[in-house]
Amino acid sequence: MTGPEPISGSELVLAGTIRSQGAIAQVLSSMRRAPGAQLGLLLVVLTIVLAALGPLLTPDPNQQNLLLRLRPPAWLANGTWAHPLGTDELGRDLLARAAAGARVSMFVAIAAVVISSVFGVSIGLMAGYRPGLFSKLVDVVVDIQLAFPFVLLVILVVGVLGPGLHNLALVLGATGWIQYARVVRAQTAALRNVAYVRASEVLGLSAARIALVHILPNCMSAIVVIASFAVAQMILWEAALSFLGLGVQPPQVSWGMMLSGGRDYISSAPHLVVVPGLLIAVLVLGINLLGEWLRDALDPRLKLTSVA
Fold it and tell me: How far apart are CA 228 and CA 184, in angstroms?
């Protein structure tokens, strides 16, 4: 009589893949029981629609008409439905500029998160899977970067490279990698001794393939949660730097630039700051609501800890 056959490394990997697919289906089904997540998704989708359909439904965001300057929104006295959200100090349509600003904000935020996540995750995988001199070097770099205030570091780098859309995305991405690296390194260090990783090493798989195929998928839940909150944070940073004149430059349009231009007219034409400020608040709220749902859905232990 023979005992049970040993489980091969490929069977362990397949079991892990099946569990991951089941977890994804469970996360998606939980959306129906999360009204906050549904509201967040609605706000984000509306902003995407505004950004996508803006060029088709609105005039040129830089088209000036001084005869129509500082017109209020259409539902107020002296407003016109030709400019539903009003016009700015140069007679430019605020709806068109809001749509253009949405495209810029989302581009900068997504590009910065992609850059920081790819760089940070790569560093975390290498430092966690093969601890040693490289891991210690990462610790030193992290400590040095954390020693500088984030605001000062970003302003310094932007001041050296110069303001602009692509430079801003690059700077925000290059300074936001630390959290990804630290979380992924910790999870990789914990996963490198599990059975299916050891079985993959015995089968002769390369370290790069083990890290990318067998370890990285198990870190994706934490990466997704970090990235979701980082998108909202990058939108705020883009608006802040553009408000200070260190971000997006004319003729491109940014919500932060709109706030900066409207601050001199806040008493006579408050819609110049209300419109971009409200758009920033709505988009960040929607992304944060989605991030909260993802955090609770991907790691229920965090929800239990917060309730306790």
Answer: 16
Q: Is the peptide bond before 72 cis (omega within 30 degrees of 0)?
A: no
Distance CA 187, CA 219 (A): 7
Give 159's DSSP letter.
H
Structure-token pair, residue 53:
């359909």
Q: Which of 68, 91, 66 is nearest to 78 (CA)?
A: 68
Query: How many residues are present in the chain?
Result: 308
| CA–CA gap between residue 100 and residue 240 (Å, rounded) | 17
**pLDDT for 22:** 54
**Which helix (H) or strand (E) element contains residue 304?**
helix 300-307
pLDDT 10s digits, 114-139: 999 999 999 988 888 877 788 888 88
For residue 147, CA distances in Å to 105, 132, 138, 217 come to 28, 23, 14, 32
pTM: 0.82
Q: Which domains are seen in the chain, by residue range?
A: 33-307 (1.10.3720.10)
